[in-house]
Amino acid sequence: MAIDIRHLLDGSLQAMVADTLGQLPALNTRLNEAVSRERQTGMQMVKSVLERIGEAK
Length: 57
Hints:
The protein is mainly α and 57 residues long. It has a domain at 29-57. It has helices at 5-10, 12-56. The N and C termini lie far apart (51 Å). The relative contact order is 0.07. The mean pLDDT is 89. This is Colanic acid biosynthesis protein.
């Protein structure tokens, strides 16, 4: 994330950081949900591959 040097001088960087930190609980919730969906998708893919391997024997 690139920040213009003027944000360091005018104090707005502090406001940006505070805003981002304020959003962390919601971001963590969204992240946890996305990770859970991806984990489920991955498990389904592994299950499918294992079933195909079992059928081939």
